[in-house]
Amino acid sequence: MAATGVGRTVERETASGVEVSPVAGHIGAEISGVDLTEELSEETVGVIRAAVLRWKVVFFRGQSLDHAGHVAFARRFGEPVVLPRRGSASPAGVPEIETTADRLELGGRFGMEHEEWLARRRHTLLRGWHCDHGARVDPPAATILRAETVPPYGGDTTWANLAAAYAGLSAPVREFVDGLRAEHRLGVGYQPRPGDDAYVRHLLDHQVATVHPLVRVHPVSGERVLFVNGYYVEQIEGLSRAESAAVLEMLLEQAVLPEYTVRFRWEPGSVAFWDNRATIHLAPGDNAHLGFPRTMHRVMLAGEVPVGVNGKPSEPITGTEAGRW
Ligand SMILES: [Fe+2]
C-alpha cells in the first residue's frame, strides 16, 4: 500500500503486513508489522533484505528478542561471525553475540586512565566514524545491534550513507578518487606515551591492516561506495602525507554531511540492522558522563573482500585473512 503525499507518492511498501517507512532523505527506514521472535516467511525476509540494501540501515522497535532469537534472526540473512576469544564479552554459550556495557574502558586495560587514552588518540572531529572491523581484508557485510538497556536520554547512534556521499561528489572528484586505494589500520594516529606504552605493544602484537579501494563497488547493489572513515584510514596510496591528509579530510567531511546521515533514538528492545559495506556509524559520546547503564548486543554477518571500480580487490597487509577471524 502506498500513502500519497502532496504531489507524489510516499515510498512506503507493505508486504505480508510488513511496512517499510523511510525516516530520512538518503538513509534509514523503520520497519513495522513484524515480530522478529517469529519464524519469518521468505517474503518478509526478502522485504527486509531489500530495505537494508536500499536504505542502508533499518530500525525495528518494540521487539523482544533474546540472545538465541537474535542469532536465529541474523542467520536468515547470512553467516554470523564468531570472534575468537571474546571472553566475558559474549553471553555464555552464544559466541555469535558481543555485548557492550557502557563505555569501553579501553585505557584501563593498558595502565592509563581512560581520559588519557582518549587524549592520545588522533585529534579530529571525524575520528569516531567507522564501519565495523573495517581494517580487516573482509569487513562484515552487516551488523544487527539490539538494545537491552538504554539511558533515558543520550546514547543515540548515527549512520551515514557512503553511496549517497559518493554520488554527491562532483564528477571530476569522483573520477579522481575512483582509482585510488588507502591503508586502513587499527590504532591510527595514536600518540604513544613516552617510554613503555602497553597500548602500543598491544597494537603491534595485534595489528590489523589492509589496503582497500577508496571507492568500492557494492557486491549486491553495484553502487559505488566512498570507502572512508575517520577511525581506520591512514594514508591514500601514492599521495604525499600532506596531500593524503587534505584529500581524506575533504572526503570524510563529505561522508558525514548531515544530509547523508540518520540518527536513531534507542528504546529497550530496539534493533538496528545496517549494511556495513555501504555505511559508517558513530557511537554516542554523550551518555558516559550521565552514569545511566547502556547495554547493547551485536551480531555481525560475514562479508567479502571489497573490490574497487577497476576490479582490483583489497589486499591484506597484516593480521587479517579472508574468512578467518
Ligand atoms: Fe561499530
Describe the protein's topology.
Elements lengths: L12 E3 L2 E5 L6 E4 L9 H14 L1 E4 L6 H9 L22 E4 L4 H4 L4 H6 L22 E8 L7 E5 H6 L3 H8 L2 E5 L12 H8 L3 E5 L1 E3 L6 E3 L6 E4 L4 H15 L5 E4 L6 E5 L3 E4 L12 E7 L13 E4 L7
Parallel strand pairs: 3-4
Antiparallel strand pairs: 1-2, 2-3, 4-14, 5-16, 6-14, 6-16, 7-13, 7-15, 8-9, 8-12, 9-17, 10-11
Bound molecules: fe (ii) ion.
Structural class: alpha+beta
The CATH class turns out to be: Alpha Beta
Detail the poorly predicted runs. Answer: none
Spatial shape: globular
Termini separation comes to: 43 Å
Q: Which ions and ligands are bound to the chains?
A: fe (ii) ion
C-alpha Rg, in Å?
Answer: 20 Å
Q: On the 0-100 scale, what is the average pLDDT?
A: 91
The number of domains is 1
CATH homolog superfamily: Clavaminate synthase-like
Using the coordinates shown, work out and report the CATH topology.
Double-stranded beta-helix
Tell me about the largest β-sheet. 8 strands, mixed
Number of H/I helices: 8
Walk me through what this model shows.
The protein has 325 residues and is an alpha+beta fold. It has one domain (13-318): Double-stranded beta-helix (4-Layer Sandwich), CATH 3.60.130. Helices cover 22% and strands 24% of the residues. The chain has helices spanning 42-55, 67-75, 106-109, 114-119, 162-167, 171-178, 198-205, 241-255; strands at residues 13-15, 18-22, 29-32, 57-60, 98-101, 142-149, 157-161, 181-185, 209-213, 215-217, 224-226, 233-236, 261-264, 271-275, 279-282, 295-301, 315-318. The strands form four sheets. Strands 1-2-3-4-14-6-16-5 form an eight-stranded mixed β-sheet, with helices on one face. Strands 12-8-9-17 form a four-stranded antiparallel β-sheet. Strand 1 and strand 2 (18-22) form a beta hairpin. The structure holds fe (ii) ion.
